[in-house]
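To whoever is on call:

I kicked off a structure prediction for a single chain this morning and the downstream step that reads the tokens threw a length-mismatch warning. I double-checked the sequence; it's 138 residues and nothing unusual in it as far as I can see. Pasting both halves so you can look.
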Amino acid sequence: MRRNVAAHTVVFQAGRVLLLRRGPTAPWAPGQWDLPGGYLDVGETPAAGAMRELREEAGIHPPFSLRFLRRLPGRTPSFLFLVERPAAYPFLASCPDGEHDAVAWVHPAEVNDYDLAPGIALSLAVACSSLADRRRRA
């Protein structure tokens, strides 16, 4: 059983962001590009749900550092997380769940060239802004 709350993760590696294309039979936004994420299971924390979805949808397993960015409002409230991984430790993302049929590592300036699922552009903008702020402070 699932709750009406979701968790999504923006994954950055070597200056690129991970996008997953939803398959033609996906129940929501078929054929559009999405982030790893989905509804939380009952009793599941947002962070645990985000980690589970990374495993299920992108084949990404720890170790990685999951950083909470913010809660996004909407019909289905969503917790947004960020994973940033250096190029020296690459993720080999895949689509093991069957809900997605393609993986792309995209430069943030090129994400608008993709047919993004609803709400994904906002999530990417929040994550890019957070990374830029963090780099300015460093």
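Update from on-call: the warning came from a stale cache, not from the record. Cleared it. Sanity check on the structure: Strands lie at 2-13, 16-22, 33-34, 37-41, 66-72, 78-85, 100-106.
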